[in-house]
Every structure is written in structure tokens, then in C-alpha cells.
Protein 1
Amino acid sequence: MTGVGDLWASLPVPTIVIGPGDEIVDINSAAEGFFNASAKTMVGLPLWDQLAVDAPLENSLARARKNGTPLFVNDVDVGNGQRAPLQCALQISPLMGAPEHMLMMISPRELAGRMTQNHSVKSAAKSAIGMAEMLAHEIKNPLAGITGAAQLLSMNLSQEDLELTDLIVGESRRIVKLLEQVEQFGNLSPPVRNPVNIHDVLDRARRSALLGFGGHMNIIEDYDPSLPLALGDADQLLQVVLNLLKNASEAAGSTGTIRLHSYFEHSFRLRRADGTGQSLPLQIEIIDDGPGLPDGIAGDIFDPFVSGKENGTGLGLALVSKIISDHGGWISVTSVPGRTVFRLSLPRASKPDTTHTNSNEQTKD
């Protein structure tokens, strides 16, 4: 018969025993990963100092404790102050045999919900991109002819009429650039994945940004120096980070701060619809202090043709999402005025096999 301790350690979601004064009495191993702290260091700490929930729960928890009834809270953002919040469901119930003690289970829903949404979105996006690629191919040739004809006409026109031909040429070139972005989105080659030092990628992107579009920004490095190698395509990951830095720089306006933050979260795991899963412990955050995403588009910001910019194409973040998805990774965003966080979750490269004499030995960290 499995013991109580084994059952406690086997619970797959972060679970907390809450004492009469809303202090933490115990946490399981999944909660240790969620808080990035051991049970020993968490015991005795006030729950609401360690857990950030975007809903007022203290009074509801007190009523559930007093009445001895369970409490269910769906679709709330839950974090710990050190990570981007996850959308979760909370199940809270009295702990049998321990008066005034409550058991809280935290069930992340963000991944499951987005995976279901992405399946539908990808089907629609695939059709839209296929049609857009066909149109791009058919439109670029006549656009070149229109541009050439306008340039020839401009040779014999007055200054007033030249403004009209310049408008034709300028708008034609703008359309060509849009069509090239559509073609790039559809034709991106699959990643060639190798062990990658993600900090090298971040540093290359930071230096490139400071020399160009991000020259007006203060870009801060906040890295975990012990972060292991990622499994990815360095060039494509560089393209992702550059795109996110460019968006953050444009959102900030004349000045602002961007923080590049890396850390390890061993409990982050992506579970797919077919039941398979993959650990994504390497976390990269691009954090800016700009005005935040426009209301109403945060949930769709990675879909093709959705943009928060006045003249945006809506393909930049769709391309970023496609690259990360092709890597087997995950991208998410949280945004409020003054703080927007794009979070990349990537797989870890396999550790090299240093055991040549005995195949049954395992490499240790």
C-alpha cells in the first residue's frame, strides 16, 4: 500500500497545506518547483506574501475555513512574484483530521487552453497564409510594372505631378515589402537544432539592437550564469529575440528600459493533446516598461495579421510564435501599462555522455 508521503509527493500539481493563520504548513514537490524554493524554507511563511493571485481570496478562504466547505476558483492569474503569472484553477478544501487547515491545489490552465486554441488557429492560419502566398506571387510582378511605369512618367512631369508618381512608387514598394513578409512567414525552413548558449544569442541581439533600432533604450542583462545549453537553432532564436527587442523599442517611444532575464524552472512542462509532454526548463523573458499591449488583443497577439501597431502587418509576432513552436518550445505574454513580459520556454540540450566504461552509469549534474 502506498504511504501518505508517497501520495503527497506524487501529486502532479502544486499543492499547499494552509494553516489557521494563512501560513504555509507544507508544500509538495510540484509546489517546490512552482515557488523555486524548498519546503523547508517555505514552511511558516505567510501564504499571500508568496502567492500572487489576481482575485481577492482572503475573505473567501476564511469563509470556506469557517464553514468547512470547499472553494473553487477558475481562470485566475497566479504567480509568485518571480515569474510571469499562469492562468490557473484553484481547488481549496478543508484538510480532514486537521482543524482549520486547508488544502490548496493550483492547476495551470494556460498551456492546455492555448494548445487547444492554437490547434484551431493554426488550421485557419495555414489556409490564410497559403492564399496570401499565392496572391503575393501573382501581385509582385504587376507591381513591378506599375512602379517602373510611374518612374518613367515622372521624367516628364511637373513638380506638382511628381508628387503623384512618387506616391505610386512609394505605396507600391510598401506593398512589395508586405508581400515579402508573407512569403517569409510561409517559407521559413525548419530549425537545425544544436546545443546553444542562449546568453550568446541574447548578447548578440542586445548589441545589434543598441547599434540600431534600440539605440535610445537602456537594455539590462539579468542572467542566470548557471543556465545549461538550450536545444535550438541559434540564427532563428536570434531572429526571435531581435523581433521582440524591436517591438519593445518601438513601444517605448523616445526612451525606456528593457530587461533580458534568464532563469531555470525545472517544473515547466508542456503537455500536448496526444498525451506526450516535454520539459521546457529554460526561461527567457524580454521585459519592457512601455505602455503595454492594446486592450483586447493580448490573447490573439501571436495570430497572423493581428497587430497593435497603427501600420503593423501582424506577421512579426506570428513568425516568432511559429519559430518557437517549431523548436518544441512555448511563448507567452503578460502585459499591463508599464510592464510587458514576453516569455520564451525552451528545451534543454541533452547532457553529453561522459560514461565510456560503464553504460549503466548516469552522468550527474
Protein 2
Amino acid sequence: MQNRAGHGITVVILADPGRCTLGAQSVQEPLQEELTRIFCSASVRVQPEMLGISEHNTLEMSTPGSVRSADRDVDAVLMLTEMPRRSGGIPLIAEVFPEQHAAAVAYPVVGVMSSRKRLTSVFMSCVLRILGTGTPEDHDRYALPWNEWTEATEHSTAQLKAHTITGVPRTIIGMVATNAPWRAAPRLSSALAAACATGAFGIFYSNIWEMSAALSTPRLLMIGLLAMTLMVVWLIVSGGLWERAEREDPTTVHLYYNLSTVLTLFLCVLGLYVTMVVLIFLAGLVVIDPDYMESVIKQPADLGRYLDIAWMSAALGVVAGGLGATFDDDTDLRTLTHGRRELQRRPEALQD
């Protein structure tokens, strides 16, 4: 391929909706600046698009061709997807397809919590390999610490793999971030209502005061953790969110999907729990008279006792909240998980 340096280029970034699109937009300007430094002039466009999966369960590669057919001025197409990708059992950061003038970048493996500089470097490295240009110094400039490209062979493409130690944790954390746990808050409104109603019961029930005063702090913490765990398990089971490896599917990393689902829901429930503790604590300060509490629990009614009551009451409320979410037809957490969103990428779903 001819060296394009000095002639100017146009790059299109196809990004999955959500965090991928936001990430692509955040690096649009610095990426254009870096490309201009090498190619004299450059244009970078970000196009939100749900990237599909082919019938062979691999990333659909007809999309870059469609983009270049619609606009002959496009020199490279970068696909930024939230789907985790692997090669040889190792998470794959990026893969270059020179014949299609395209590259696929797995946003969770790049690290959604990483700086914009890291994503810009990955994009730049992909563009240089797609166009077959750039000096050795340019390639070194955009190299990632602890990550090296494997060169293309007759049977494989050029790939940038994650580190064998940090790759999996980075991928799982990235998947949780792309799941956006905070999006579950509106969908758990029925759970919050049921949890608050049950938790408020602890403010008026003196046996809860006595029990919370009698339990040690470690035991109270274990009760809270158990309550949150039970709610997460119940939401997964009742919602059918656990992915089962029933077929050979190289694009579906079932272990990654299930771990990210568990962590995503746990963060959702943790947020619900902390919110309840704060609300019940404040309500307890207003409702429960300190002298009356002392006469019941036979201990000083300090702020720690109010917090113990709030913690214990919230644990009861969280369990009730899980049941409340089950009986609410509007509570649908399936789109929070990668496995269910992947079904939307398959050819039969895209045709509907």
C-alpha cells in the first residue's frame, strides 16, 4: 500500500451506542490532531451504530465496506464495540483487517476507565497498520505499555492482545462500566418502594432495636452482605440473566458475561442499600426518642445505635425489595447485561 503521509485522510469511527459512542466522541479531537501531525490533514467522524454479529458468530465485517462504498473518501473505518473479544484465550484489545481498511477495538478491554490518551493511542496504532504507513518512531509513539502487536500471518490478522495478568480484570471492569449500573435505578422503583416500606418497619419495631444493639459490627456487616447477595441471586434467577454455554460461540465469553452481570447487579443493589441506610437513619433520628431507645435496649442511644438500626432495617428491606421487583412487570434488567444485548446484534434480530 502506498504511503499516505502528507496527503490527508478521512477516518470514520463506528461506535456502539452508549459508553462506546461517548468514548469515541471524547477522543475525536485529539485523534484528529494526531492524524494531522502525520498526514498533514485529517478528518475524523463518529457514527453511532449497533455493530452486528455474522452468521459465523464473529464481528460482522460487511459494515466497513458499506461505509466506504457510501463515501469513497473514507480511508479507514474503526469499529469500537462493547463486546469483549478473545484470541487464544486472551482478551483482545484490537484487530486490524487491512483488506477491509478496518479495525475492531474492544472498548471494555481497552479499559473504559482509562485515559483518553490510551484509546487515542490504540486508534492511531490501528490506522497506521491499516494504511501501512508511519515510521518506526510513529509506531513506538503509540505503543501501549505491556502490550505488543502480533504480526499478521497467512492464517491470522494483526492483533493487539491484553496483558495475560491484567487483561481479564480490566475486561470485567470495563464490561461493568459499559453496563452502566446506574441505569438500573429507574427500573428498580418497585424494589425501592417495597424496600423502604419494609425498612421503615424497623424504625417502629423495638425488637429490631434490641437485635441490632445485641449484634456485633462484623455480624451486622455480614447480614447486610448476605441480604444484598440474596437480592442479586434472586434478580438473576427470576430475570433469567445467567448465560449458559449451550453452543460453540467464539464471540460469547460466558464467564465474562456472568461475572459482569453479577458485579453490575451488586453495584445496583449496593446503591439501593446505601440509599436506604441513609434514609432510615435520618428518619430514625426524627422518630425515635433517645431516652425511649435507652429504656428499650439498655444501652446509650448514640448515633452508632441509630446507624445499627438503619443497617439492620435496610437488610430486611433489601430482601423485600427483591421480591417487589419480581412482581413488577415494568422491571426489566435484561438490557443491562452483555449477553442479552448481544442477541440484538444477531442477523435475525437486526432484520426484525
Protein 3
Amino acid sequence: MMRPRHFFQAVAVAAASMGLVACESRRPAASELPRSAEPLHEAMQQLTGTMVYDIFSPPQASRVYSYASIAAYEAIRQGDTAWRSLAGQVRDMPAVPAPDRTRNYSFALAGVRAFLTVSHQLTFSRERMDSVRTAITSRYADALPDDVYERSVAYGDTVARFVLAWAGTDRFKESRGLPKYSITRDPGRWRPTPPAYMDAVEPNWGTLIPFVMDSASQFRPAPAIPFDTLKGTPFHTQALEVYEKGKTLTEEERLIASFWDCNPYTMNVQGHTMFATKKISPGGHWMGIAGQASRQAKASLVESADVYARTALALADGFIAAWEEKFRSGVIRPETVINNYVDEQWTPLLQTPPFPEYPSGHSVISTSAAEVLTSIFGANFAFTDSVEVPFGLPVRSFPSFEAAANEAAISRLYGGIHYRQAIEEGQKQGRRVGQHVVARLVTKPGAAVAAR
């Protein structure tokens, strides 16, 4: 019998390998590398695969995506400084070291190298990421003179070191030493859920310094409906909706719930055996959508780097905002309420994630990412989402990013893991976060700078 960790690794490696196959078919020739965005797209896919392998929680994954994407963008934009730096726009971020303008560089190589070096330092499987970094970086060797190649790699590492030093000021390290979530006797407060009854994930994530928001509480949602088990009360009514919906799901609704599940660590129980399977995180799903949209729009290298950076920042701040409220209000999950007060045999379609219910994190971050992507590609950008194919799910097509975000949000009701208020208020919170990111971050040449 395969032990849980080994089973998970097998699933993750298979998924990463499937992603690599897709990359291989688009690999540019050596002569095209200095202009191509494909190495950056592949680097992003490799980072996602590594975080799947390493079992990164959704909030932690969003942090890694942000710093790696910022490093890539800041190095790549040196080749066209009409693109504005994020320095001075993102939280306390100073200007990155400038290259020696009297020398030649491949800023494409520098950007990919910076991305992979940051990724290498912020993930656990460093040997795995080191091999990826070497493999992707070395492809530029045949396309560039030796001195340009070496200088570009060195500059990418310089930018990476700068970004990593700045990353050390976001209170992440301090949050590691803060108290864990305390379970109380309050009947309306969150408590661990079956089958694994895992501890709360990242209870102090709301203490991290946001990238673009002024504070974690800047866009708090409306107060959660007060806990009440009396029939006819607002809380009991919304819990009953989850229960009844779970019994009448259509096949399409089941597929939607599975497509947007994005649970990084699902425990499966078969008799006395428990084993784990692993999926992409919600943020990883949206970073995948950002890459697909960039490819579909034939975005240039710097345009693609910009898409990744701003999408990642919307996701990261969305997670900080959602987690601040989750552990402030500590709302109990539908599974616990229904089992205790309605039907002790009921189980949700999806496995309940190990953290408080309100608001729906997926609703927050999907809406915030959709706001940024819509601002870049337009309100009617139709696309086909194949991000979940490596995990055994079919593609889904959407007429817009907003439509995809709306589906991601309602999927949480279908899955039985969120009340309607958490979904709707989560969307409102995510929209405010995303719109704030769009207004505050101006990178494209010629774009008007918003008043601050």
C-alpha cells in the first residue's frame, strides 16, 4: 500500500509532467528566445508544479507567486523602461538596482532567472527548483554571446536578491511565531472538520503587510449573519440552503464544484486507510488563467510579465483581506452545523477546508483576479480554461473573466462548504480589492497615473 506522502508525490509529479508536455510543444528556437514569453510561462508552470509537490497552502502560494512575478517584471522592464516600475507603487518597495547601461544584456534571460531564483528560495524543494532554473536558463546559452549570457544571469540574480531582502520585511517570518488558533466552546465558532480534523491553516495571515492595500482590514465585508439554530432565523435558513442544495445537485453543478475545488490537500478515507491527493491552489488556478490569456492574446514578454505581476498582487492582497476576516469572525462551517443540528449523516460534496467559513476565500480572490485581468484584456475576453486538465478534469469555456469568477464563487455552495452570504460578500470584498489594485498600480506606457 502506498503511504500518503508517496501517493501525493506521485500525483503531483504526474501533474507537473503533464504541464511540461504542454510547454515542450511551444518551446521557441534559440534564435527566438530573447523575444519569447514562453520561457516565462514555463517557469510559472514549473513553480506551480513545485508548490503542488510541496503542499503549499493557498495564502502561502499567493505570496510566492507575488515576489517571483515582481522580480521577473522588474528585470524584464529594464529592456523597455517606458514600462513603469512597481517601486513606489507596491508597499514600501524601493527601486531595484539598475543594470550597467553601457553593457549589453538579455533582459528576457535576466527576468526568467530572477523569477526562478526567487522561486528557488521561497519553495521547499530547492533541489527540484534548482534543476528547473538550470534547465530553463541554459537554453539561452546558444542564443547569446558568453559575456551577455553571464552578465544577464548575474543581473537576474541581483534583482532576485533585492526582492528577497524586501520580502523579509512583510511580517511573514514574525507570523510563524504567533499563537495557533484556539478552539473554544462557543457553538458558533469554527472547529476542525472531518475527515482529518486538521488544525486551522494560517490563522495569522491577516497580520502580514499587504502589497497594495493600506491595511488587511481596508475592505472588510459586512458582518457575518449571527449564529442561530432556531428554524426561520437567517443563519439557520442559510445553513438549510446548503443542506438542501447538496441533495439536489445536477451533474453540471457537481462538475463545476469539482473544477473549482482547488483544495491543496484532500484526505481520502477508505475503510481504515487514509491517503492524500493534491490539487492546484485557487491562486495557482488563476495564475494559470493569466498565462493562458497572455498566450491567447499573443502578449509580448514584458506584457506577460506585467499580467503575472498584477494578477499575483491582486491574489495576494485578496488572501490577506479574506484571512483577516476569517479569523476575526471565526464562523463555523456548514458541515459542522448541519451534522449537529440537521442531519448527522450529511457530508458535503467537497471536503471542507481547514479554516473558518466567512468570507469565501475563493470568491474573494477569484473576483479580485478577474478585475485585474478584465482591466488588461477587456470585459468580453472569451477563453477556454484548461488549467485543471492535468488533474483529470475537462476544460471549461467562459465568455469573460467575470463569468469564470462568478462560477468559481457559486461552486462553493454546490460543494457544500460555504453559505450564500460568504459567497456574495466575498465577491464584493474581492471586487473592491481588485479595483483598488487596478487603480493603484500603473505599469503600461502612456497609462494615466491614478491620484493617491
Protein 4
Amino acid sequence: MSILIAGGGIAGLVMGLTLHQLGQPFRIFERVAEPKPLGVGINLQPNAVRELFDLGLEVQLDQIGIRTRQYGFYTKSGREIWVEPRGRVAGYNWPQLSLHRGKFQMLLLEELRARAGDCVETGAAVAGFETSDHGAALLLTDGRRVEGELAIAGDGIHSAIRRQMVPQEGEPIWNGAIMWRGTSEAPHFLGGNAMFLAGHDSQRFVAYPLTAENPGTGLAQINWIAELKVDSARALRKGDWNRPANKLDFLPAFEDWDFGWVDCPGLIRTSGAVYEYPMVDRDPLPSWTTGNVTLMGDAAHATYPVGSNGATLAIIDARKLGRAIRDFGPTRPALLAYEAEMRPRAEGVLRANRGKGPDAVMQMVEDRCGGVFEDIETVIPRADLAAHAEHYKRLSGFSIDILNAEPPILGPFKG
């Protein structure tokens, strides 16, 4: 019998590649009939990149993304608060990657099909599950019941499996912020391959390149996010979730955000389609596992997109769960071993992202001096900024010295 996976996103596809590496039969059920490279930019931290390299994807990943060199926080007027190297430049054995989510998902799908054949069934939405002492079943919206040894929910923030486990939970929790996301053609900034966050809790702008500069034009694809706090009591219309947006809804608030080294309103104006996303997460659960069914990725721990860590956690989930299945077999003890390791870490990240994530230093500076200073040392000592950054890395599992010294979760794919 196979292991059943609900959802063909990043979590589900990495889970499939991992089970294929282990020689474990599996099948993925994805609701979308024809997956397409949709979405915007994401970052993958070195602990996740290590796992993808172990899966034999290094060459392909370098073809669709770039290796992030620098990560920094700035005030609403572009003053530098804290900047640090990232990836191999920082001393990791693996890079940090910036890439397009949709291209990454299609890469995973194509690679999985090439290795494992017809293992992803599209147009197959999961409505719920059943579990027994001997296995689990997925219930599909077309009326089918598919049996397996285990069922794994990688079906995202609106997971049908989580909804069955926690029927009283309701919709994701909105904190009153809206993110507008888009991509533009523009030069790199801050020396190239750099990511920056500017502003504070009520208003911020984030940008990073997804490609190298074109030698002919000097331009690259730049991913950007403009974020504003609005009235959290305002009811979001159903269509407000991930919908095409009007730039005039937010561009005026960023008109003065030309820092010299980057022109934020210019990026907004020259972008193509812009999409609106509410800043949402879900409360942590006391358990991810019911019988022979468990949660992973956003189905388990949907969190604010803070710290560039959401997709990374999903990838680590898949590899840790794969190791537990290798060690315990496709059994409930494997699910419980995986949950015991990953649920506390994910909960710590989720709670940190609600206010004490790495970007909290921007609000601290805004509170202490309105974002105006000559030397950041007089506002927050650099040693404190370094300690704050290191705390989040340790919480999330990508502290440099610890990660470099850790043995691999499963080791390289032998092909």
C-alpha cells in the first residue's frame, strides 16, 4: 500500500521526492487540474537548500534562482539598521536562494515525474480522511475513497484535512496588514544579490532579485512586497484573498520611499500585475496527528511571511518525516516521532513571527528615534542586533555553526 499525500505544492512534492529516495510507494493528490508556475518570489534558507542539494537539484535550482549574498533592515527613509551576509558568503556550507515560487514548484513536479513516473494525480481535490488501526484513507471530492498505510496533509493553509481535525477553528487569523506583491524589471541594488526590508510594523517595503542582471539591459527581475496596516476590524471580501489589485490602493503611501540606492515607488509603477494578500496565520495546534494521518507545511503551521522561513520549514518537515518513516516504517510511531521533533520548532517560529521575528528591530528603531539617527549604535548596540538575528536563526534551525556541524537528515539521493 502507498503513502497518500494531499496537495502537490512545495511540501507535498518534496515529500514525494523524499519517499521516492527511500523506495517507499506513494501517491499525491492535487486539486488543480493543470499546475502552472504561479506566485511570486520566495527565499530558501541554507538548511532547506542543503536538503534540496541532497535530492540532486543543485544545478536545476541555480538555473531558476540566484544565491542571496546579503540581507538587511532599513528605516522608512533608507537608513541602515542591520545588514548581514547570507549563505556561503556568511560561512554556511550551502547557499540561501531567492527564486520564483511557481518556477520552483514546476521544477519539483517535473523532477518527481521524471524519477517516479505517474505518481501525481491532478484534478483530484481532497475533502477529508478516515483512519484506522491498520491504515488511512483520503476521501476525494469526486466521491472516491483511496486507501493507504499513512495519509499526509500538505494541502496548505486551507487544508481540508486540518479542518476535519479541528472543525471549530474557522478561517485563518488576519492581523490587519495587507501585502501587495509584484515583480519589476530593474537593476540590482546594494551591491547585487541583496535582500532588504525597510520601514516598521505599520508600513514596510521588501525587495530582492530573482535573476541576475541581463548583460544587455542591465536589468533583473526584482520581487517586491509593499505592506500596510489597515483597520483590522474591516471585513475582507472573499475576493480580497490573493486577488489582482489596483496600485493606486497603496502607491501613494510609498511615493517618498526613493532611497537613492533603490526607488520603491518606481518598482511599483513599472511592475506588471500586482496581487493582494492579507497577512494571515493560524494558531498553533496541540497535535498534528490523528491516527495514521498527520499535517505538514502550511497545513500544520501557517505563519506570517517573516524571516524568509515558510517554504524552508515545509521542506524540513518533508525530510524529517521521511527520516521517521525510514526509522519506524510507514506507521503511526513514525508520524509521532516526526511531530515530536518538528511541532515545537514550528510553534516557536510561528510565535516569533507574530512580533519578535528578525524584523522586529525595525519597529524598535522607529519607537526609539522615529527612524532618524546618525549612528545605529546610539539607538540599539550592534551587539544586540547581532544577538537578535542569531536567536531567530537558532530557533529556526539555521544557525551557521550548528547547521554546518549537523549530519544530513537523510543524505544524498543515489539516483
